[in-house]
Predict the structure.
Amino acid sequence: KGYYIDNNDHKTECLIKNNDWHNNPGKFQYKINENGEPKTLTIKDVREFSIYNTSKYIRQKTNIERASIYTNDLGTEKEPVFKEEVLFLRVLIEGEKSLVIYEEGSLTKFFYNEGNSNFEQLVYIKYLTADDKVDEYNKFKQQLWLLLQSQSNCITEDNLKEIQYNRSSLKNLFTKYYECNN
């Protein structure tokens, strides 16, 4: 059981085929009821869809950099090279400050937003230096500091020194922020 919201903000309760997507989908199948005919909706038709208690995807036009983090595929660029794309982003933590993920093959990128703003990518790039050593550009730590610092001092610079660019580490950080800020 789930729902989708079309481009006219109309919410339709339905059954969505759960493909347990590893890659963020560009389309999905649904039925209005058990006996209904399966139909397909694409990213052009829907701005949000969800399978209750399982997953939620939000369509977003956003800038994404697609640099690999795998040693065999590293480039020499430290600075991100963004390309604007329309993507379904999977919601990991939803609230005033949200965390979402985009996965495609071996590519995993995280995005955040605050309020009703567009999602912005948390930037993490592994790259080769001039002497063929692997280095990291960890701009995401600064982005998180600016996003999550609060008067209650829940998130400290020490928290961010230890953070990793992965699902569990980032979810734990956002959860800590929300637990500390009620």
About this structure: The two ends are 30 Å apart (CA to CA). Residues 64 and 82 are 5 Å apart (CA to CA).
